[in-house]
Design a protein that fits this description.
single chain, about 350 residues, mainly alpha, four-stranded mixed beta sheet, globular
Amino acid sequence: MKNMLILIFLFASATKAQNNIFDFTIDKRLFISYAFMNAAGNDAEWRKEGMNPIRIDVRNILNAKIDSAFFNKIHKYVYDNHLESWTNYGPYALINNGPPDFNISINYKNSDLDSVSVSKVDGLREYFIEFYHDYDIEKLWKQYQPIIQEENQKYEPYANKALLDITNYCRINNDYFAQKANNISFQKIPLMLYFTAQTLKVNGKIYIITGPSDGNPSESSFYHEALHYPIGEIIKRNTDLINKYSDINSINKAELGYEDWIEFFEDCLVRTIDKRMEAKLFNESQDELLKSIYSEYKIGMILCPYLNEELEKYENINITLEEYFPKLLSNLDFNKERQRLDNFNKNGR
C-alpha cells in the first residue's frame, strides 16, 4: 500500500507542472476560417470514404446560400494567391481577432509565424468580413459549436499524460511544455481534411489543430504534433550534422511537399517516435510496429525504418535523446538505404 501511494505521488508530481495548461474550448475563428476554405472550393479529402459528415453538411448549407458572384470572387483570389491548401487557414484564423472586423493581431516574438507568412494571408480580411456578415456564419457557428465542442472535449482525459509520455521519451524536464507556452489549445475541427494536423504557436499560446480521424481519443492523438516541439529544437541545434547526410534524399522519388531535407528529416523522426510510443501505449507486437513503420516508408518517409532501428538502441540506454542524437545518425549510410529501398520496391518488406 505504501509503495502504491508513493507511485501515485510521483505521478501527480510529474504531471502537476502541466496540469491546467490545456484549453479544449473550440475557437470560433478556426470554424470560420475552415468554413471559408470549403466555401472557396477546397474539395480535397484524404479519406477514401469521404469527408466528415459535419463538413458535408456545412458545405451544403454554404453552397445553397453563397451566390455565384461571391464564390467566383473568393475562388479566384484564393487560387491567384496560392492559398488553396488547408495549411493556410489555421494560421490566418489565429492571427486575427475574429468577427466582426478580423483585424490582424500578432506578437512575432511570441509566435512561430514571421511577417512573410502573415503577409501571405492578410489579404483575406475583406473577404472574411463579407463572408461572415452576408452569409449568416454566426448562425452556422451557433448551430454546430455544441456538437464540435462535445467531440473535442472527449480528448481532455488524455492530454496531460500524452505530454508526460513525450517528456519521458525524450528524457527532458516534465515541465518542458509549461515553459514553452502559457496555454495549449487543442482543436478538433471537422471542417478540415481527414488525417491532417498542424501545430502553431501564436501570441504565446500553442495550438494543436487537427482534422477528423477514424480512431478513438487517446494519448496518441497528441503525440505527433506535440513531438515537433522538442524534436524541432534538437534538429535546429544539429542542422550541420544532419545536412551531411542530405544525399540520401536523392533516392527518394516521392513528392511529399517538404521545403527541404531538414524539414523532411524532422518529420521522419517525429513519425518514427510517434509509432514507437503508440506501439508501447497499445501493447503492439514487433510485427505490428514494423507494419506501421513500413506504412510510412511506403509513402516516401524513407528514413523511418533506419530511425526505428536506432531508436530501439536509444531506448535501452540512459541518456537524453539529444545526447544520443549524434549516435542516432552515425550508422546512416547512402548505399545501405538505397539497397533497402530497392529491396522494398522489388519484394516489399
